[in-house]
């Protein structure tokens, strides 16, 4: 792969720029989840409305990641990346200035679009800036910035909200966004882009409809209780996916070259990422309920203990990323998936234990969850991006981010909708509430572990060495 000519000093400033984007996106996500009850009270919204403050961000990100990656391959990574930083910064101001629910929704939608651009194009810029010997280390540092954002979010958001109000939490993104934009203007250089200038508009439309309906179905409880409407959404989703795959097979310049998935490390790596983040987000979603209903823990104590997982991810990521440059990605991807599975199995045992051992298992499970994603992410990303041909770095970056996002949605859905369904059925059988909760908790963690095993098989199926094959 040809690497864009960069000075030794500039390439690390470019990495800092991309890292700031990753930090902003994760920080904003974790802050918003933390202060959502405060926003709900301030804007006097219902719980269903408040869910859309989070859902709109997730939906826009899911729909736009791959199309933006494709556009960056066609129009150039630099100009798209600059636009993303500028858009994110403006959106943060809109969110911070919001005086109504709908203005905040608009700001969050624009914020998601800016974040989607940054996350989609960032890894492509790193891949075309660093050599294959340093790529894993660079992607590990980018992941480190993401985990720092996740770690600081709850504490950062809670403290600022208490001192100056929830709107100021959005304003804090502005100086970071301006610094990232300035670094991008000064140091990110355009690399040669593909000569193909056709844009697969039909594919983008069908993909957007398909992913929108899939996201809506995964959050059906917050949309409607009408079975007829849900059935129509399901039919539209299936039809849209079918049209999308048909279009991609015939398109001269497809949005997603399906032949990319025939590259071993790309296909198995992408699906492995989805399963890894499914396990991670399943843990993030359900464990707080265990704190609340079983341990009766305060929110502050829960937040403090929960920092264990992202802190471990923060420490692991750059170290493992650098090691993967020398030892290969597959062994670390497999090890990470193994820790993810172990964390879920520890939670299964925890649910069947009522003594002080349960708390020890909880801590061990959170530690393993941190190792699971911290060890997995950077090497897996490096393998995927290294396997993708040069002209498809942008779309490959978008695919990686989208599959990761699909895993987040799936983990949250399993932890929410499936958990509620099983719990309701056990409660109807007359099982006491506490016992029903622990039984449901155990079943769902088992289901997560099964998906983790599938992810482990995906990692095992990757090649030891990364190579690029033209589609």
Overview of this structure, please?
By secondary structure, the chain is an all-alpha fold. The chain folds into 3 domains: 1-197, Growth Hormone, Chain: A (Up-down Bundle); 201-250; 260-471, MFS general substrate transporter like domains (Growth Hormone, Chain: A, Up-down Bundle). It contains 16 helices and no strands. It has helices at residues 8-43, 47-75, 77-96, 101-129, 132-164, 167-171, 173-187, 201-218, 227-250, 264-293, 299-306, 308-327, 330-351, 357-387, 393-428, 433-460. Helix 2 (47-75) packs antiparallel against helix 15 (393-428). It is globular and about 65 Å long. Mean pLDDT is 79; it is low at 1-7 and 467-471.
Notable traits:
471 residues, mainly alpha, Growth Hormone, Chain: A, 3 domains, 16 helices, disordered C terminus
In the CATH scheme, what's the topology name of the largest domain? Growth Hormone, Chain: A
Tell me the series of helices and strands, N- to C-terminal. HHHHHHHHHHHHHHHH
CATH C-level category of the largest domain? Mainly Alpha
Q: What's the N-to-C terminus distance?
A: 15 Å
Number of structurally distinct domains: 3
Instruction: Characterize the overall form.
Output: globular
Mean pLDDT: 79
Beta-strand portion reads under 5%
How many strand elements?
A: 0
Outline the biggest β-sheet: none
Report the total helices. Answer: 16
Q: Uncertain regions: pLDDT < 50 for 5+ in a row?
A: 1-7, 467-471
Helix/strand structural class: mainly alpha
């Amino acid at each position: 792969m040809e690497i864009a000519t960069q000075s030794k000093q500039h390439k690390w400033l470019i990495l800092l720029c991309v890292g700031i984007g990753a930090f902003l996106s994760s920080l904003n996500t974790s802050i918003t989840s933390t202060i959502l009850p405060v926003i709900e009270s301030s804007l006097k919204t219902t719980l269903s409305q408040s869910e859309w403050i989070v859902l709109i961000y997730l939906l826009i990100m899911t729909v736009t990641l791959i199309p933006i990656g494709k556009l960056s391959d066609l129009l150039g990574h630099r100009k798209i990346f600059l636009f993303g930083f500028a858009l994110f910064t403006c959106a943060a101001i809109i969110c911070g200035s919001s005086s109504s629910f709908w203005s905040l929704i608009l700001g969050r939608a624009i914020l998601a679009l800016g974040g989607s651009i940054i996350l989609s194009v960032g890894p492509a810029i790193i891949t075309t800036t660093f050599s294959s010997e340093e790529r894993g280390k660079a992607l590990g540092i980018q992941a480190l910035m993401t985990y720092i954002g996740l770690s600081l979010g709850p504490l950062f958001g809670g403290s600022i909200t208490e001192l100056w109000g929830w709107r100021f939490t959005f304003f804090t993104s502005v100086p970071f966004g301006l610094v990232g934009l300035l670094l991008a203007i000064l140091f990110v250089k355009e690399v040669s882009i593909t000569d193909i200038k056709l844009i697969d508009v039909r594919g983008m439309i069908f993909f957007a409809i398909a992913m929108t309906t899939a996201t809506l179905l995964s959050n059906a409880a917050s949309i409607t209780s009408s079975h007829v409407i849900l059935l129509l959404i399901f039919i539209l989703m299936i039809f849209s996916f079918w049209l999308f795959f048909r279009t991609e097979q015939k398109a001269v310049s497809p949005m997603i070259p399906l032949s990319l998935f025939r590259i071993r490390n790309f296909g198995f790596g992408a699906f492995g990422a989805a399963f890894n983040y499914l396990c991670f987000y399943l843990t993030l979603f359900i464990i707080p309920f265990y704190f609340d209903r079983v341990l009766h823990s305060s929110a502050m104590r829960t937040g403090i203990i929960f920092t264990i997982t992202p802190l471990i991810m923060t420490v692991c990521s750059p170290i493992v990323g650098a090691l993967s440059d020398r030892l290969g990605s597959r062994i670390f991807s497999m090890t990470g998936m193994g820790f993810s599975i172990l964390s879920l199995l520890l939670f299964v045992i925890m649910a069947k234990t009522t003594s002080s051992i349960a708390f020890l298992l909880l801590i061990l499970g959170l530690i393993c969850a941190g190792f699971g994603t911290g060890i997995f992410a950077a090497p897996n990303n490096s393998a995927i991006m290294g396997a993708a041909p040069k002209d498809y770095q942008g779309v490959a970056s978008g695919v990686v981010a989208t599959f990761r996002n699909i895993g987040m949605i799936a983990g949250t859905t399993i932890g929410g909708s499936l958990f509620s369904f099983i719990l309701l059925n056990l409660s109807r059988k007359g099982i006491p509430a506490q016992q029903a909760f622990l039984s449901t908790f155990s079943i769902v963690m088992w289901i997560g572990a099964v998906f983790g095993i599938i992810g482990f098989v995906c990692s095992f199926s990757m090649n030891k060495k990364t190579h690029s094959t033209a589609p």
